[in-house]
Specification:
Largest sheet: none
Structural class: mainly alpha
Number of domains: 1
Helix content: 40-55%
Distance between the termini: 33 Å
Order of helices and strands: HHHHH
Strand content: under 5%
Number of strands: 0
């Protein structure tokens, strides 16, 4: 995230209006909802985790015990439970 001086990108009237609410502080202005991407979608990590979780759930449904899955996937049993019981 980069910081941009408000007076260099916003009209003077808008800066004055914002100053009524906040002065000399850092303010985050989020992207519009349509341009927001979920965590990991660009890197492919979200897809990898979803595939891992689906594989884990399938193994559990096929009878693999939680302790074995925890060792195989290098996760705690509590994390295995969260994945298995999440829809």
């Amino acid at each position: 995230m980069t910081y941009i001086k408000a007076t260099s990108v916003l009209p003077e009237e808008l800066v004055k209006e914002i100053q009524k609410y906040i002065q000399g502080e850092t303010i985050y202005i989020p992207k519009p909802g349509k341009t927001y991407k979920q965590w990991g979608t660009l890197s492919g990590e979200r897809k990898r985790i979803d595939e891992r979780n689906n594989s884990l759930k399938e193994a559990y449904r096929s009878g693999a015990p939680m302790g074995q899955l925890a060792k195989e996937y290098h996760l705690s049993i509590e994390t295995i439970k969260k994945i298995i019981y999440t829809k």
